Amino acid sequence: MTFTLAIVGRPNVGKSTLFNRLVGKRLALVDDQPGVTRDLREGAARLADLRFTVIDTAGLEDANDDSLQGRMRRLTERAVDMADVCLFMVDARTGITPTDEMFAEILRKRAGHVLLAANKAEGAAADAGVIDAWGLGLGEPIRLSAEHGEGLNDLYTQLMPLADAFAERASEDAPDTDVDLDEDDDTDEAAPARKPTKSRPLQVAVVGRPNAGKSTLINRIIGEERLLTGPEAGITRDSISLQIDWQGTPMRLFDTAGMRRKAKVQEKLEKLSVSDGLRAVKFAEVVVVLLDAAIPFEQQDLRIADLAEREGRAVVIAVNKWDIEEDKQDKLRELKEAFERLLPQLRGAPLVTVSAKTGRGLDRLHGAILRAYDVWNRRVTTAQLNRWLTGMLEQHPPPAPQGKRIKLRYMTQAKTRPPGFVVMCSHPDKMPDSYSRYLVNGLREDFDMPGTPIRLHMRGQSDKNPYKGRRERNAGALTKHLGKNRKG
């Protein structure tokens, strides 16, 4: 999915009908009665070779109070802010109304890219409405019939250049991960990690449960109140990216919405916010999991940290609100013990205590982020690995399932960001997970790779000697060659 398209407009202009056609399913209720759609609905859309996320929104009405219509309008406006492209739909048969003109003005100010679609445009009766749509100042209207599937080629033509631009932007923003290594380049000195620059800053996502203090922490780092904060949980709705120079290190910080347990995420907007946070994790190189010192390591904290590990990102655990903690030494000891027990897959990852309110501990957090990034880029030479593997085999040989001894012959590092290793062995499918964990823990400890995700792959290698029979084959070829010469 390269971009997000929000379909907005007055009630009953055909937004849900177009949404259903783009996703290829009847996900949204459709009826002649206006106001059927009340919340946001998200789906995976397909239009020819384009793949994108489409959002069906409630009908825009002229209401700003706390009534149902006012809340629906605020929800739709938030979808406009979150979307990459807005498709503003009008009813070509009804013509342009004062409400259409008012919302066209709002979209011009709020949305980055707005496309205008005149729906229900089949037949001559819609010609006048299509012509009137030009007066909205949003460019040429796309003549659509969502019900009959007409005009989708014109919509594709308008979306294609935008999709290309968003795909190019995504490729620029996406971090280099699972970077292949040249196995022939096996110098004694491993290459250092790429230094962050202004053009390619270090990408850091701050994630955690609602009200852990993510926005407050980022405000403290950048030294100004750029992000809205407060005692209420869930103020931040979408991922916000800020580029800064933090103590000489160019960084792009992602502030994300708080991630609650899936069962508690009922509001459609919050579902979008959480999915936006998950995307921020994928675009980050280092993920800072921010915990509340009063209630650390709840189930959702563990899920968030595990998600970052599964995505192969460097992880830093930061414990916030440390300034109000009374028995700091005992609390820190409890935290470290709980971390080792509950997140063994991140054993050794940096755990730092901070106070977003006072700014204490931010120097330690900066250093922990750089250390995690350095380990994430760590490279070990093949010669070192195979000497190490010999020692590990002598200390604890692999098992012999069904009487067949598993032979580990050769090991090399195939990737970095995160470190990935390949072991050539016999019967890779019979290698128990416990022995793989033994090797991963050994790599983590002996090559100083605490906390970073480590990928270990067992690859099969034939037991046959590749040199066996070569002498006989060479002798046969020589005899054949001499025989030809005699005939000649």
TrEMBL record:
<feature type="compositionally biased region" description="Acidic residues">
    <location>
        <begin position="173"/>
        <end position="189"/>
    </location>
</feature>
<dbReference type="Pfam" id="PF14714">
    <property type="entry name" value="KH_dom-like"/>
</dbReference>
<comment type="similarity">
    <text>Belongs to the TRAFAC class TrmE-Era-EngA-EngB-Septin-like GTPase superfamily. EngA (Der) GTPase family.</text>
</comment>
<dbReference type="InterPro" id="IPR015946">
    <property type="entry name" value="KH_dom-like_a/b"/>
</dbReference>
<dbReference type="InterPro" id="IPR006073">
    <property type="entry name" value="GTP-bd"/>
</dbReference>
<dbReference type="Pfam" id="PF01926">
    <property type="entry name" value="MMR_HSR1"/>
</dbReference>
<feature type="domain" description="EngA-type G">
    <location>
        <begin position="202"/>
        <end position="377"/>
    </location>
</feature>
<dbReference type="InterPro" id="IPR031166">
    <property type="entry name" value="G_ENGA"/>
</dbReference>
<feature type="binding site">
    <location>
        <begin position="56"/>
        <end position="60"/>
    </location>
    <ligand>
        <name>GTP 1</name>
    </ligand>
</feature>
<feature type="binding site">
    <location>
        <begin position="208"/>
        <end position="215"/>
    </location>
    <ligand>
        <name>GTP 2</name>
    </ligand>
</feature>
<feature type="binding site">
    <location>
        <begin position="119"/>
        <end position="122"/>
    </location>
    <ligand>
        <name>GTP 1</name>
    </ligand>
</feature>
<feature type="region of interest" description="Disordered">
    <location>
        <begin position="451"/>
        <end position="488"/>
    </location>
</feature>
<feature type="binding site">
    <location>
        <begin position="9"/>
        <end position="16"/>
    </location>
    <ligand>
        <name>GTP 1</name>
    </ligand>
</feature>
<protein>
    <recommendedName>
        <fullName>GTPase Der</fullName>
    </recommendedName>
</protein>
<dbReference type="InterPro" id="IPR027417">
    <property type="entry name" value="P-loop_NTPase"/>
</dbReference>
<keyword id="KW-0690">Ribosome biogenesis</keyword>
<comment type="function">
    <text>GTPase that plays an essential role in the late steps of ribosome biogenesis.</text>
</comment>
<dbReference type="InterPro" id="IPR032859">
    <property type="entry name" value="KH_dom-like"/>
</dbReference>
<feature type="binding site">
    <location>
        <begin position="320"/>
        <end position="323"/>
    </location>
    <ligand>
        <name>GTP 2</name>
    </ligand>
</feature>
<keyword id="KW-0342">GTP-binding</keyword>
<dbReference type="InterPro" id="IPR016484">
    <property type="entry name" value="GTPase_Der"/>
</dbReference>
<dbReference type="InterPro" id="IPR005225">
    <property type="entry name" value="Small_GTP-bd"/>
</dbReference>
<feature type="domain" description="EngA-type G">
    <location>
        <begin position="3"/>
        <end position="167"/>
    </location>
</feature>
<keyword id="KW-0547">Nucleotide-binding</keyword>
<feature type="region of interest" description="Disordered">
    <location>
        <begin position="170"/>
        <end position="202"/>
    </location>
</feature>
<feature type="binding site">
    <location>
        <begin position="255"/>
        <end position="259"/>
    </location>
    <ligand>
        <name>GTP 2</name>
    </ligand>
</feature>
<keyword id="KW-0677">Repeat</keyword>
<comment type="subunit">
    <text>Associates with the 50S ribosomal subunit.</text>
</comment>
